[in-house]
Design a protein that fits this description.
The protein has twelve helices and eleven strands. It has a four-stranded parallel sheet, with helices on one face. A four-stranded parallel sheet has the order 9-8-10-11, sandwiched between helices. Strands 5-4-7 form a three-stranded mixed sheet. Strand 1, helix 1 and strand 2 form a beta-alpha-beta unit. It binds iron/sulfur cluster (SF4). Iron/sulfur cluster binds next to helix 3 and helix 11.
């Protein structure tokens, strides 16, 4: 079958794209499958997603639907992998398991095709198994798919190391440092991050990111703090916070409304971290980032006051 050269894959620039996007793009590029990425989030894109998504969706899922909407008709198939588990104790938020089916349902009246693969180690479907089977579905041989995955995995590992190194360099910088604890799809989304990271940096603070620390070290560090946390990304965020809090002057927990995993783990962090200024920022589709600046300003004042600097 020469489906190989004929298909263009669309990838929504949202949710797990900010964690696995390097791997996904490298996999398709290795197979020489053209990829289209949806444009960066804007207010209009968020509003289009909010109007289509199921009401109960979190802000991130609403933004995701806006990105899928932006890809309609621009690719042959939109790629939405199902990430379920990496091992028995490390699972993803259930929204990632349901995202493919939910999206297909939301866009059921359009001719758009969707493709997926299942990453579910608990069910013996590793990431490699999932991507090799995706490659086969696209018309490539098992060997071609396996090689493409191996190279994509290496590219992903390089990117992770680079991020962790960047954070170490930022932590070593002099001056006020704020540790941001939030999922990559919030902290890397240009629309959501600008009023937070952009504002803090403009006002002289260095932003450390808990989502960009060494994942293995972070998961280990979480075990001593919360041995029962099973959501893999929250586990990493908790562990990073534990490891990096002494380098920071303040911590900001950033989450999307209504997020089940964050509501539990942020509560845990708020109760347990008593020796450092901590602020909770919850973003939703209505207010978006309005009012964030005022809160950040007061937070920096508190830090300055605490350090005995003039406010
Ligand atoms: S972890 Fe929270 S923000 Fe992320 S997909 Fe799940 S509910 Fe949404």
């Amino acid at each position: 079958m020469d489906q190989k050269s004929a298909i263009t894959i669309g990838i929504p620039r949202a949710m797990l794209y900010y964690r696995y996007g390097v791997l996904w793009k490298a996999f398709f590029e290795e197979l020489q499958v053209p990829v289209v990425i949806s444009p960066p989030t804007t207010r209009e894109l968020l509003e289009s997603g909010s109007s289509i998504a199921v009401d109960e969706s979190c802000l991130s899922a609403k933004i995701f639907m806006g990105h899928v909407n932006a890809l309609l008709g621009k690719c042959d198939a939109v790629f939405i992998p199902r990430y379920s588990s990496l091992n028995h104790n490390a699972v993803f938020c259930t929204r990632f398991e349901g995202l493919f089916d939910q999206t297909r349902n939301v866009f059921r009246n359009t001719p758009q095709r969707f493709i997926s693969c299942n990453i579910d180690e608990k069910e013996k479907s590793s990431e490699e198994t999932a991507f090799v089977s995706l490659g086969r579905e696209l018309g490539f041989s098992a060997r071609e798919s396996k090689n493409a995955y191996a190279r994509a995995w290496k590219a992903d590992q390089r990117q992770q190391k680079l991020w962790a190194k960047e954070q170490e360099a930022l932590a070593a910088k002099p001056g006020r440092k704020i540790l941001l604890v939030g999922h990559s799809y919030i902290l890397s989304d240009p629309y959501l991050q600008k009023p937070i990271i952009g504002w803090l940096e403009e006002n002289g603070a260095t932003c450390l990111r808990a989502d960009r620390m060494d994942r293995v070290k972070a998961r280990k560090a979480c075990t001593g703090f919360s041995p029962t946390c099973r959501w893999i990304m929250n586990e990493e965020l908790i562990g990073s916070t534990v490891l990096w809090k002494q380098k920071a002057d303040g911590i900001i927990l950033v989450s999307a409304f209504p997020c089940g995993p964050d509501s539990m783990t942020n509560e845990l962090l708020t109760r347990r971290l008593k020796d450092i200024p901590l602020m909770n920022l919850v973003l939703d589709a209505q207010t978006g980032t309005a009012g964030v600046e005022t809160r950040l300003e007061s937070f920096l004042d508190i830090i300055q006051f605490r350090k005995g600097e003039e406010v």
